[in-house]
From TrEMBL:
<dbReference type="GO" id="GO:0008237">
    <property type="term" value="F:metallopeptidase activity"/>
</dbReference>
<feature type="transmembrane region" description="Helical">
    <location>
        <begin position="155"/>
        <end position="171"/>
    </location>
</feature>
<dbReference type="InterPro" id="IPR003675">
    <property type="entry name" value="Rce1/LyrA-like_dom"/>
</dbReference>
<keyword id="KW-0472">Membrane</keyword>
<comment type="similarity">
    <text>Belongs to the UPF0177 family.</text>
</comment>
<protein>
    <submittedName>
        <fullName>CPBP family intramembrane metalloprotease</fullName>
    </submittedName>
</protein>
<feature type="transmembrane region" description="Helical">
    <location>
        <begin position="75"/>
        <end position="96"/>
    </location>
</feature>
<keyword id="KW-0378">Hydrolase</keyword>
<feature type="transmembrane region" description="Helical">
    <location>
        <begin position="177"/>
        <end position="194"/>
    </location>
</feature>
<dbReference type="InterPro" id="IPR052710">
    <property type="entry name" value="CAAX_protease"/>
</dbReference>
<feature type="transmembrane region" description="Helical">
    <location>
        <begin position="116"/>
        <end position="135"/>
    </location>
</feature>
<feature type="domain" description="CAAX prenyl protease 2/Lysostaphin resistance protein A-like">
    <location>
        <begin position="118"/>
        <end position="209"/>
    </location>
</feature>
<feature type="transmembrane region" description="Helical">
    <location>
        <begin position="36"/>
        <end position="55"/>
    </location>
</feature>
<keyword id="KW-1133">Transmembrane helix</keyword>
<keyword id="KW-0645">Protease</keyword>
<feature type="transmembrane region" description="Helical">
    <location>
        <begin position="7"/>
        <end position="24"/>
    </location>
</feature>
<keyword id="KW-0482">Metalloprotease</keyword>
Length: 218
């Protein structure tokens, strides 16, 4: 029951963190700068809280039954980053060739904020990847697979990989559902392959850093 309870705590905490800036804005009519400041503090605290729930006395789930070494985790984190960049390039190229729009309104809006308010990069590079990997990969993929393991452990993980990746895509809904679903499936595989959520976290952080750091002139 502990795994299920901690999963619920993580999901509730993530929902509160996600909704809090909007709720405060509806009550106090905040300026853009105030909203950004609240989001930075809110998301960083949220990442710390979710990290505590995820790593402090959390029972192992199905993907974590066989954990790879720290060295292999780092190696696969870097390789996972390289593959996800290639994956994005292929899918976006196919999108253009089929008459679609490769531009992401969500990404453009976030980068616009970073240009005007560089410290906001902490949200995109650090807080968001940590929280999303804990929620979508560790809880909605790994922990949920435990609940469905009565079917068959392998089938349960396959099913929850698609569920978590679909929800991950919807959470980033900006017209690129296939792209985000593919990224979600790849990150789920990284987590499953190494048994460590730090692998997909690393790949996710590096992926976001590649987009954000050039805006900061780094």
């Amino acid at each position: 029951m502990k795994l299920e309870k901690k999963s619920i705590y993580i999901l509730i905490t993530y929902l509160i963190v996600y909704l809090l800036p909007g709720v405060l804005n509806s009550f106090f009519k905040l300026t853009h700068m105030e909203i950004f400041n609240i989001q930075i503090v809110d998301y960083l605290i949220g990442a710390c809280l979710l990290g505590y729930f995820a790593f402090h006395n959390m029972p192992t789930n199905l993907p974590e039954k066989k954990r790879r070494s720290v060295g292999q985790t780092i190696l696969w984190g870097v390789l996972g980053f390289i593959v996800v960049i290639i994956l994005q390039s292929v899918i976006l190229r196919l999108t253009i060739q089929t008459g679609g729009n490769a531009n992401s309104q969500n990404t453009s809006a976030l980068l616009s904020i970073v240009k005007s308010y560089p410290i906001y990069a902490l949200v995109i590079i650090v807080a968001a990847p940590i929280m999303e990997e804990i929620v979508f990969r560790k809880v909605l993929f790994g922990n949920l697979a435990n609940l469905l393991s009565f079917i068959n452990p392998k089938i349960a993980q396959l099913l929850t990989a698609f569920i978590s990746s679909g929800l991950f895509a919807l959470a980033h809904s900006d017209g690129h559902l296939i792209l985000y679903a593919a990224i979600g499936l790849w990150f789920s595989w990284l987590y499953h392959h190494t048994g460590r959520i730090q692998t997909s976290m690393m790949a996710h952080i590096l992926m976001n850093s590649l987009v954000v750091l050039p805006i900061l002139g780094l």
